[in-house]
Amino acid sequence: MGKVAREISHLDVDALIQMLNEALSEEWLAYYQYWIGARLMEGPMRSEIEPELLVHADEELGHAILVVNRILQLGGTPILNPAEWTKHAKCSYEEPNDPYVEVILEQNLRGERCAIERYQQIAEFTNGKDHSTYQMAIQILNDELEHEHDIEDFITDINRLKDDIRKLRL
How far is residue 66's CA from residue 47's CA, in Å, rounded to a whole number? Predict the structure, then answer.
């Protein structure tokens, strides 16, 4: 962290770096959860949902880049060993043992909701104290809110599809 940045920062930088390392761990796990889930997924609307989940995966990777850059700017060290990710992440990785599309979507939805909480926490911690980290947290938070909305829309569409099929059987 630069001299002026330290002077204008009114927060515990070590605590912030810890939160950012937790977020970094969560972003890597979210990336993989989206990526592998999209590859394994089976069921209705798979061909429409898979490309969107891969876009989400790429965006999670982009978040990881933003977070690691900020950790370095703050003078911290990012988590260097992937084996440490699950130890530091508060948002859990859910192994896609059931490849059914709705199960994959529900797993990703839980992950997004956890990420929303994470970036709200970082935004609240840095608001008015560290403008750079605050802006980054808000940017990522907006992406996570959009991901949640996308997933909810897919779940709604699948449920409507199932309802339409039921009606046809009657």
Answer: 30
Do 112 and 133 form a contact (C-beta atoms < 8 A)?
A: no
Contact 44, 88 (CB under 8 A): no
pTM of the model: 0.93
pLDDT at res. 1: 59
Mean pLDDT (whole number) for 135-152? 98
Question: Any idea which residue has 């429409």 for tokens?
Answer: 48
Q: What does the longest C-alpha to C-alpha distance in the chain come to?
A: 72
Can you tell me the distance from the alpha carbon of 134 to that of 113, in angstroms, rounded to the nearest whole number?
19
Closest listed residue to residue 136, CA positions, set 72, 55, 69:
69
CA–CA gap between residue 170 and residue 165 (Å, rounded): 9
